[in-house]
TrEMBL record, chains A, B:
SUPFAM superfamilies: Actin-like ATPase domain, Winged helix' DNA-binding domain
Lineage: Bacteria, Bacillati, Actinomycetota, Actinomycetes, Pseudonocardiales
Protein family per UniProt: Belongs to the ROK (NagC/XylR) family.
Domain of life: Bacteria
Domain HTH marR-type: 25-67
Protein name: ROK family transcriptional regulator
Family annotation (InterPro entries): ATPase_NBD (IPR043129), HTH_MarR-typ (IPR000835), ROK (IPR000600), WH-like_DNA-bd_sf (IPR036388), WH_DNA-bd_sf (IPR036390)
């Protein structure tokens, strides 16, 4: 059964399956086309108006869809356009960074309705301290949003197993095999999903900024990671750990890395390396005089990304995090390095991530509502 | 309709579709289980014995399947085991190397039935000269095999577009935008399929040596390439050019490469680089005293493969071509380098390609018979 087609026949329990399938189909049409009339949904799905009306009633009763008020004075029967319910089920997002924690709530449409961040040193303290801090901040933000939050998505700066366990995070040596999903579920009283920060940042680009079907999104920060999107889907690799761009070797004899390797991209173009290189006290200072950081990061990123282009054949590079803040000069430096490294691929483009896309934090929260929309 | 399940219902032209589907299903069971009885096929497919018998008759009439002679003296009704017809439709394989051409014919079971190679300098001569040479050698090998060859598959040392055109081959500067498929089809009078040598070498590992579902196969020669297999399928990337391991940067300030880049793996660990490094006259001489070549290639391969492990997350590396001939000491050197570069993935294994798998040439020929088996 393809998910894009309506299903009409069925009996007994099969009929229930059919109804669930069509419910999801109608909800997807409303999500993608809102505001849209029942007639519009019927036309696009191929379902009868009667079926659509019945399914829409169910979606309204479940709080997933609302009818917009129709302007008075329209002639004929009002069309009552439908849209996703902004007061319906919502998602909580949590991002555990190296030295901060971010929290947000998104509504069913993926719009951020409340958001806060706070300093929180996860390098030296026990994971439990950081998790307590995250849960406390989350409670505040959930209260502020005033929406029925149904679950949480968490972005983590490390390797996340398919079982929801943070296996390791090179920049957080104390966070080894931490069951972040279970730990936060217990603190929040909500079901919790976890994902890698770089993967979720790439997903944000795809979901909220109309990203192209094939690209690599590079997250620059204390850690450097990448999310690879192929065919409009996150490419996670056989073990779920693909896209570890920060540990691609750029200088085989370079400085030792927290991963145990040497000369990794992160050691040359990560936030700490660039601060050290320029003597800037913090990122704000770095951005006031970014010339040298841009040149050095541009070259290192170009070398590492030449590997991505050669191995995975992506046509688009999106620079995010600190790299987006370094802006067009960095994109130009990376482009120049890529051109000289892979002259056979002049079509590869490098662009900056759209800050409004919301990054990994928003995508983490959106995991919750996107799942709800897929299975109403 | 999943391809793994029998389909029973249907009427009119739908019935024909069902029959074709079940024909392919029965043929696949015979190919995978040969020798196998009709009853065995019925049991494994869930089709009735009557249906299986009827389909088998059609496969026998088409020359795809034969009955094995049954030993006399068995009691009861003989089971007449079935197998693929070794005299049935066959495939021609052609491999255009940098300085040689190889040709083989495989039967329906993928077994090589005739094979030859010849020196043929494709670096300095016009492509047409090489294509003539390949076609002439192919005619000899086809005559020797004495099988009904239905088509040809061609392995090429460069970038092959989805349209069958060799776009470029870094080591064959005269071969730019050559429609190898059309050129050889005209010379051979056969339909022709083309593919990248490294991709086909990986396919050989998968098809003929029971390769694991996820691995990268590295082809060492004058050119260095890789075929990446994920989930039992060749991973070609959005543009069909994934796996260009030879041009991953290993030494950013290293020697200029034929690709226009600098310090690519091929410049450090390709056949020419290793001959130059050791002063050996040819590969045979190199293999008599391989110590220095093994150390240098092992380090360079380890650095480049650290990128593959980090970006694509493959758990297995298979070394082929010249690298397989350098043997276990090279595998050990690559393993040691990978361990130091990516200490977080101690499970990654490095092994040698099985020469009996037959490599890219056999896989190219097998393209033909595998297609025939999928669509009987």
């Amino acid at each position: 059964m393809t998910t894009g087609e309506p299903v009409r026949r069925g009996a007994g329990s099969a009929q229930q399956t059919v109804r669930r399938h069509n419910l999801a189909l109608v909800l997807r049409e409303i999500a993608e086309g809102e505001p849209v009339s029942r007639a519009g949904v019927a036309q696009r799905t191929g379902l009868t108006r009667g079926t659509v009306s019945s399914l829409v009633e169910e979606l309204i009763a479940d709080g997933l869809v609302t009818e917009l008020a129709v302007a008075r004075g329209t002639t004929g029967r009002p069309a009552s356009p439908l849209q996703l319910n902004r007061s319906g089920p919502a998602g909580l997002g949590i991002e555990i960074g190296v030295d901060e924690v971010g929290v947000c709530v998104v509504d069913l449409s993926g719009t951020v309705r409340a958001q806060r961040s706070a300093a929180s040193d996860h390098r030296t303290r026990e994971p439990a301290v950081g998790l307590d801090r995250a849960a406390a901040l989350a409670a505040e933000v959930v209260a502020e949003a005033g929406l029925p939050v149904e679950g949480a998505g968490v972005a983590l700066p490390g390797v996340v197993g398919r079982d929801g366990v943070l296996q390791r995070a090179p920049n957080l040596p104390r966070w080894v095999d931490v069951a972040v999903d279970a730990e936060l579920a217990a603190r929040l009283g909500l079901p919790v999903d976890v994902g890698n920060e770089a993967d979720l940042a790439a997903a944000a680009e795809l979901w909220f900024d109309g990203g192209p079907p094939d690209f690599v999104h590079v997250s620059g920060g204390i850690g450097v990671g990448a999310g690879i999107v192929l065919g409009g889907e996150l490419f996670r690799g056989p073990g779920g750990r693909a896209g570890e761009l920060g540990h691609v070797v750029v200088d085989p004899d370079g400085p030792a890395c927290s991963c145990g390797g040497r000369g990794c991209l992160e050691q040359l173009a990560g936030q700490r390396a660039l601060l050290e290189l320029t003597g800037a006290r913090d990122v704000e200072a770095l951005l006031r005089d970014p010339g040298r950081a841009t040149a050095v990061a541009g070259r290192a990123l170009g070398v590492a990304l030449a590997g991505v282009v050669n191995l995975v054949d992506v046509p688009t590079v999106v620079l995010g995090g600190l790299y987006a803040r370094l802006g067009e000069p960095l994109a130009a430096a990376v482009t120049a390095e890529l051109r000289s490294r892979v002259p056979s691929r002049p079509e590869v483009t490098v662009r900056l991530s759209e800050p409004d896309a919301g990054g990994a934090l928003r995508a983490a929260a959106a995991l919750v509502v996107r799942r709800r929309l897929r299975r109403p």
